[in-house]
Amino acid sequence: MLDTRFNGQLREQSTQSGRADLNQPKLEVREICKSYSNRGKELVVLEKINFQLDPREFVCLVGVSGCGKSTLLNIVAGLTTPSAGQVLVDGQAVTGRPGSDRGMVFQGYTLYPWLTVSQNIAFGLQLRKMSKAEQRERVAYYLNVVGLTQFAKAYPKQLSGGMKQRVAIARALANEPEVLLMDEPFGALDAQTKEQMQQFLLELWEQTHTTVLMITHDVEEAIFLSQRIYVMSSHPGRLQLEIPVNLPANRHLEIKLSSEFVEIKRQILHALRGE
Ligand SMILES: Nc1ncnc2c1ncn2[C@@H]1O[C@H](COP(=O)(O)OP(=O)(O)OP(=O)(O)O)[C@@H](O)[C@H]1O
Fold first, then answer.
1. Distance of alpha carbon 108 from its chain centroid, rounded?
2. Closest among 174, 6, 10, 161 to 100, alpha carbons compared
3. pLDDT (tens digit, 9 = 90+) per residue, 128-161?
């Protein structure tokens, strides 16, 4: 059984850097459009996507398969170039690949199999030429945060799926990103491990208050985790509906059975079915 309690002491600097200004959006997506040309025909995948995340918000994007969720998240991450529009973090336009401002966690287990858990977490820190002493301190801290201190020297093949995703989350958080981007991070897990990871992620977010943008096609996961949900429509991908999730901050899995939760689920499923 996964221990979902948060194990770490909060780092003094937290995951928000000195650039954070609570009055300005942490993330702004402005007029994003994306088209691909397919055998001479234009395929419009995203049309005029606009939204903002406040500092410390947890927001989910949900939508049917193929509506453009991954394309949108990859544009925010800087892995895909938009046809038009801009992405801003702390008011500054972002360009290029994920770096210290945007950390990314993918669905598949994207750990380096030839590196230990510690070395995987340290990977981005090494690239940034952080001193060895600081790397050790950060890695120890985030290993503790995700409850894997005793697996520091293990290799990915020795870990369960849930543990691998905790390492991937630790690796992203170790860079102390301004925004954590998650693409179906628990999509490959069995139902029980998935629910344990949802509780774990929520507790982690409550402690670190990292700004999170996550995509999922699991409606219950989106409601359980987020403060706001955007429902996307497809062909072309647009933001169809914005739903605030006014559930208590301190959530446990049983909340999925509450009437408030079921009502939000009904609204989202209704919007998705109206597609
Ligand atoms: N490189 C590409 N070239 C052409 N079309 C693409 C490319 N990448 C994505 N698409 C198309 O863009 C659309 C959106 O794809 P995307 O993967 O973003 O959807 P999604 O909502 O994340 O789907 P899923 O939930 O199944 O992962 C699809 O129709 C896909 O075929």
1. 13
2. 174
3. 889 999 999 999 998 988 889 999 999 999 999 8
Domain membership of residue 190 (yes or no) is yes
Which atom of ligand 1 approaches the CA of 217 most closely?
Answer: 25
Residue with the nearest Cα to atom 25 of ligand 1? Answer: 65
Residues with CB under 6 Å of ligand 1 are 36, 38, 43, 45, 63, 65-71, 217
Residue 222's identity, in one-letter code, is: A
Atom number in ligand 1 closest to CA 71: 18
Structurally, the chain folds into a number of domains equal to 1
Cβ neighbours for 262, distance < 8 A, ≥ 6 positions apart: none
Ligand 1, atom 30: closest residue by C-alpha: 66
For the CA of 183, the nearest atom of ligand 1: 22
pTM: 0.89
Tell me whether residue 1 is in a domain: no
CATH number for 207 = 3.40.50.300
In a domain, 150, yes or no: yes
